[in-house]
Structure to design on (165 residues):
């Protein structure tokens, strides 16, 4: 009976992982489709005193770095990262760690889809203060960033707990 319960919890966790990742992927995909169809390339639409919606295409990694490496390189790195996340998720982490990895997975898949379908990543969120602009990003980037921060916080906290024991 206890193995059945563990199996059910595993299935429940699997459903949570799939739901969070699918939500990120869907939101990322739909938002990029809207931007591509409604906002001209390099157009900027002011939304708030610190936020613009823009349309830029990124061939590199975060902040367009390493764009000279080519799309195939980033597709390969994305597949390796996704496999590593899935292997880690197979250990069925719990709590915030589960959600953080699900967000990272969704973000990685979202940007990978762009790279496979159009050869680059569509970015559209432009946050700024005065004339200083953070590099444009998208929903997948946001999920990756939040997921990585949560993952680090959970693991730093649990590492501290195990040292205190």
């Amino acid at each position: 009976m206890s193995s059945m319960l563990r199996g059910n919890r595993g299935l429940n966790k699997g459903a949570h992982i799939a739901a969070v990742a699918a939500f990120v992927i869907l939101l990322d995909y739909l938002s990029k489709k809207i931007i591509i169809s409604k906002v001209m390339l390099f157009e900027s639409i002011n939304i708030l005193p610190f936020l613009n919606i823009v349309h830029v295409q990124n061939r590199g990694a975060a902040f367009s770095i390493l764009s000279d490496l080519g799309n195939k390189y980033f597709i390969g790195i994305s597949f390796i990262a996704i496999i590593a996340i899935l292997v880690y998720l197979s250990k069925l982490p719990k709590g915030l760690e589960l959600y953080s990895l699900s967000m990272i997975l969704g973000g990685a898949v979202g940007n990978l889809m762009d790279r496979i379908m159009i050869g680059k990543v569509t970015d559209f969120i432009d946050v700024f203060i005065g004339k200083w602009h953070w590099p444009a990003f998208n929903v997948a980037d946001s999920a990756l960033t939040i997921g990585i921060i949560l993952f680090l916080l959970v693991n730093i906290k649990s590492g501290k707990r195990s040292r205190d024991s």
